[in-house]
Amino acid sequence: MHTSTKNSEEVLQANIIPFKPEGEFYFSKGVQAFRKREFDKALRWLKRASELSPKQPLYKCQLSVVYTETGEYNAANQVLMDVLADFGHEYVDCFYLIANNYAHLGLFHDATKYAKEYIQKAPEGDFKEEAEQLMSLMDIDEESDSDEDDELDIMLEEEDELLRYQESAFYYLERQNWKEAMIILEDMMRLFPSHITAKHDFALALFHHGDRQEAIDLEEKWLEQTPESLHSQCNLAVFYHGNGEQEKAEQHIQQLLNVYPIHEQQKLKVACTLSQIGYYQEAYKRFTGLKKSKLKGHLSYYKWYSISAYHTGEPSKAISLWEEGCIRHPSLSEQGGPWESS
């Protein structure tokens, strides 16, 4: 009897087929999560579906829709561009979706270009009416040759170019690719001298790239010219703290502790700065007051919020934030973890 039982178990094990989910399984899970508006889960499932079934463009299109829904328009367009590169003739709807994302980003010329291309390729397409409305809302009439319209076109082109530079600089800064960021920011300072943020971001990249004293000298000069500059106060707090010159750092830290900006981006800047210089309690309070829905596209939000939480006795929250950040921004996983920060 014992031998018979053993043989039966062996036969049973030999006939077990391991369950290996394929793309369709994950796609179904992703769609379900999307319908429940569980966007983090939807992103995770749909990314997995796309990885397992790279020749199934529908999965990528749905992934782009989730990115659009969460306001990550650049990420959405990158996915859609990949689909067009591989399946352009079959998935012309991508042209409209890209146009819509560009419109949200304020890149109106690009939005118009793709909306027109959609109408040209799918004159009776499902999104024809939406594409026409999109073009109408942007109110760009290319048939007009008046000087006023020419000036408007030039102005819009400059705005589009500035936005493209901003997006590129932001990409490299968030990923701590200081050298590439400096190249972009130098061009920005030359082409758009009135864009104040570019010079402060350049000083930040310069400092982390190793040219510390030059970065400090630049910020000190700019602070003298504009004593109320929040950017200079943040940068100098980080610079002097990084150099071990805590007495000088404290002058700027005390200024920051008494500042409560109105705009979300400036609030994030202060919170991240306080975390970087070890003021974790103060940083954590600032982070809890931020509107997460407006900052999901910022890797720095997840990184420094997580680090602040970890150092204020909230390890579970820290890990949760870090994991969510790594899903949204895979390059964050290359930056260690909140437990590795000093």
From TrEMBL:
| SMART domains cross-referenced by the UniProt entry | TPR
Q: Which domain of life is it from?
A: Bacteria
PROSITE patterns hit by this protein: TPR (PS50005)
Task: Reply yes or no: does the keyword Repeat apply.
Answer: yes
Query: What InterPro entries does the record point to?
Result: O-mannosyl-transferase_TMTC (IPR052346), TPR-like_helical_dom_sf (IPR011990), TPR_rpt (IPR019734)
Q: Where, in residue numbers, are the TPR repeats?
A: 23-56
Keyword annotations from UniProtKB, A to Z = Repeat, TPR repeat
Q: State what protein this is by name.
A: Uncharacterized protein
